[in-house]
Amino acid sequence: MSTQVLILIIAAVGVASAVGGFALSRAVEGRKLRRLADARDRLNSTLATVPGGYITWNEEQSPSVSDGLADLLPDDAHGVEGFLEMFGDSDRVRLVRLMDGLRSRGEEFSLTLLTIDAGRALRIDGRRARRSPIDVLWVADVTNETAIQSDTAIQLTAARVERDGYRAMLDALPIMAWRRGRDLT
To answer: Is the separation of the CB atoms in 109 and 102 below 8 Å?
Structure first.
């Protein structure tokens, strides 16, 4: 066999190996991309089930508002500014100060604020992601829970007033009164 034929055979084997290696690496990359896309879709589906919504800030400090939070906003409000417009002046200033602390120094916070229409109570939690440079503002509508707590507090206050009235009545009696248990203690 001549040297030229041998060189052509070696070159052909080399080209075939390179093409095969390229095709294999493309197939592996394709599988990785599909797995990443599936993971992203699962994450987006999971985040879509979060009650309320959230705002995230990435390294560039550009905010992203979730669809769930956009649903909480009034029809004419959009984005972070629209979210902030839901609160009165003092609450807005306080929330902006807390958000700045979260974004600049990682200071986490949690508070409940009433919207200016006093129609809703929103629980707002500011958190920094542990392993990536992302800040998240979680927002949940806790109006029902707040109403239940208010009702319970009102009932407790009424019971205390009633108890104090009974004590005052007993203290006003001109005779001694006491209470005994079933075992007469």
So the answer is: yes
Using CA atoms, how far apart are residues 123 and 153, in angstroms rounded to an integer?
A: 19
> Which amino acid is located at 91 in the chain?
D
Q: What are the φ and ψ backbone dihedral angles of 137, each rounded to 5 degrees?
A: -110, 105
**Interval 15-52: pLDDT, tens:** 666 666 666 666 667 777 777 777 777 766 666 667 67
Query: How far is CA 63 from its chain centroid?
Result: 14
| DSSP-assigned letter for residue 138 | E
Task: Pick the range with the lowest mean pLDDT from 84-88, 103-107, 148-152, 164-168.
Answer: 148-152
Q: Token digits for 131?
A: 């392993």
Say if CB 80 and CB 65 are below 8 A apart.
yes
The single-letter code of the amino acid at 40 is R
Q: For residue 11, give both structure tokens.
A: 């070159």
Amino acid present at 155:
Q
Q: Could you give the dihedral angle defined by the CA atoms of residues 151, 155, 158 and 159, in that order, rounded to the nearest 10 degrees? A: -170
Residue 72: how many other CB atoms lie within 10 Å:
20
